[in-house]
Design goal:
Length: about 270
């Protein structure tokens, strides 16, 4: 909008109006992105009231991270079509950013929930809980050795994370096959798993699960399995599926192995 008697602002006044530094205006003038209306006889730049709305639009677009080169082209010859194109492109980018932050928020929620669960865990005592069905994505098998080495687990883990595009590598757990549970072989990990909505995921049956929390080194988990299975039997239940290990406090949270917390779940009947 043009005014009959245009109000003028010094560089400092114009900058103060928008709460920015004068250096920002000097920089925009230097790169020909937004120039002052003119220069007075004393050599000082000045801006006019009619430049307020265009500059407000520029600041808004910069907040949306529109590239400077894009803005330079736009402000050289602005048009409704160009502004609409910029708005559409930035809207699509914002939607992508929103989805990214949703994933980050979900991941942070998982971390805090897991740490709180570990804090409230009743160690070395089996609890029977009703667990709902859950979609899980499984890795390839670790091998047919009677004992899965740390190296084997790491190789399968890294391949699983890489090729499955898992957002959170820390959410990967291990599966001890039902046969190995019955044979008392707790050192062999059959495969890895993670929660997923991927079309390749498989629904893990819901129902009654025995839940047990192990605290300490991974190489001591086999003793927890022995205690867990004994307690399950004493409670009048029997295992009816594989065991699922979730590492709710692991290397990411602490360097002390004695502080590791592993959640073990076995479906029972």
């Amino acid at each position: 909008m043009k005014y009959e008697k245009e109000i003028t602002y010094s560089t400092g006044q114009f900058a103060a109006h928008f709460g920015i530094k004068k250096d920002t205006l000097f920089y925009y003038d230097k790169i020909k992105l937004f120039c002052p209306a003119g220069i007075k006889a004393n050599g000082y730049r000045y801006y006019t009231a009619s430049q307020i709305e265009p500059f407000r639009t520029l600041l808004f677009l910069r907040e949306l991270h529109v590239p400077v080169k894009t803005l330079q082209k736009y402000f050289q010859d602005p048009s409704p079509e160009k502004l609409a194109e910029i708005s559409i492109n930035q809207s699509l980018q914002i939607e992508t950013e929103i989805e990214k932050f949703r994933r980050i928020r979900s991941h942070l929620h998982q971390i805090t929930s897991a740490l709180q669960e570990a804090k409230e865990a009743d160690f070395e005592h089996v609890k029977i809980e009703t667990i709902p069905p859950k979609r899980l994505l499984y890795s390839k098998q670790t091998g047919h050795c009677l004992e899965t080495s740390e190296e084997q687990w790491s190789i399968v883990h890294d391949d699983f994370v890489l090729h499955s595009h898992i957002a959170d590598a820390n959410s990967v757990g291990s599966v001890i096959a039902e046969k190995d549970l019955k044979d008392g072989n707790f050192d062999r990990i059959d495969c890895l798993f993670t929660e997923s909505t991927d079309t390749a995921s498989i629904i893990r049956s819901g129902g009654q699960y025995a839940v047990y929390y192990h605290k300490g080194q991974y190489d001591k988990i086999k003793f927890s399995y022995q205690r867990m299975l004994s307690q399950i039997n004493t409670m009048g239940y029997s295992p009816a599926g594989s065991a699922y290990e979730e590492y709710i406090v692991a290397e990411t949270a602490t360097k002390k192995e004695e502080e590791y917390v592993t959640k073990i779940m076995i479906r029972v009947e």
